[in-house]
Design a protein that fits this description.
mainly beta; 7-stranded antiparallel beta sheet; 36% strand; 3 helices
Length: 294
């Protein structure tokens, strides 16, 4: 066999190996949708503007109204992500929210990102919260380590039977584990819709309500693009949510890997500013879900 034939044969083996490897990987949706493909406006359509042929949108808040949108379907497990560019400058008193909600009143399940506006020069704070079977009050707050109004960043929620992971640019900032075996509620029965709003909440959003919104800076704008949903739609195939073949149920997604765990610890050690788990005034006895780590 000639030297060139050996090289060709090795290249073919490598290519076949790569093909085989790729086919074993979980298949994900590689193309983010346009806004109207998966979402509809739920509040103040005059304050939401489509951009770039529907690939992006602009949300507006002024003294007349905020605005919001929601997914056309609900989902039971999976991953949702969006790229968001938050309100720039003096955004105190504004809240940009991106969350999942079962819309079931007293027994609702909900997974929240809430971006709390700031006075110019102060860090942007993201608050996460988890409601399971109607029980919430699990707030955690992290100061973002970059300016989220200068450019788009990816915010995602990955939800499976094992845990919920909130991530910012692939850095996990919160993990809520399934501890049903210890009697702790976990959202796994009710499908949830995907929602986002831009609204005024200056009674609590910035420094506990001490910093009020400055309407002379209005209107306030937030921008979204690259809407990506990969999950089990409801209504849809009844077996989807319990199918162990779904990529988000794979062994690599049942807990954080070593790289993700290191990023998680870095974010929380350096940027966490509030954790309900350590708030002894609210919880003299540490909530049991706080004792189990990631």
């Amino acid at each position: 066999m000639t030297h060139s034939s050996c090289i060709l044969r090795k290249n073919i083996v490598i290519i076949l190996s790569l093909i085989g490897f790729v086919t074993l990987l979980p298949v994900k949706n590689a193309k983010p949708a346009t806004f109207l493909q998966d979402f509809h406006i739920t509040w103040s359509d005059s304050h939401i503007k489509q951009l770039d042929g529907g690939k992006g949108i602009q949300l507006l808040l002024d003294q007349n109204s905020g605005c919001g949108f929601a997914s056309k379907s609900k989902y039971l497990f999976g991953r949702v992500s969006m790229k968001i560019k938050l309100v720039p400058g003096d955004s105190a008193g504004t809240v940009t929210a991106f969350y999942m909600n079962s819309d079931t009143d007293q027994v609702r399940d909900e997974l929240d990102f809430e971006f709390l506006g700031n006075r110019t020069g102060q860090p942007y704070t993201v608050q996460t919260n988890v409601y399971a079977h109607g029980k919430g009050d699990r707030e955690q707050r992290i100061n973002l380590w970059f300016d989220p109004a200068a450019d788009f960043h990816v915010y995602s929620i990955m939800w499976n039977h094992h845990h919920v992971v909130f991530s910012v640019d692939e850095v996990p900032i919160r993990v809520y584990k399934n501890n049903e075996a210890k009697g702790i509620p976990y959202p796994k029965v009710q499908p949830m819709g995907i929602y986002s709003t831009l609204w005024e909440a200056d009674d609590w959003a910035t420094r506990g309500g001490l910093e009020k919104i400055d309407w002379s800076k209005a209107p306030f704008y937030a921008y979204y693009k690259d809407f990506d949903i990969d999950g089990c739609p409801v209504p849809g195939p009844s077996a989807c949510a319990s199918n162990p073949v779904n990529w988000w149920e794979g062994t690599g997604y049942q807990q954080l890997d070593s790289v993700a765990a290191r990023r998680y610890r870095w974010a929380r050690m350096n940027h966490m500013v509030y954790d309900y788990c350590t708030d002894k005034q609210r919880y003299p006895v540490t909530p049991p879900e706080c004792m189990d780590g990631i």
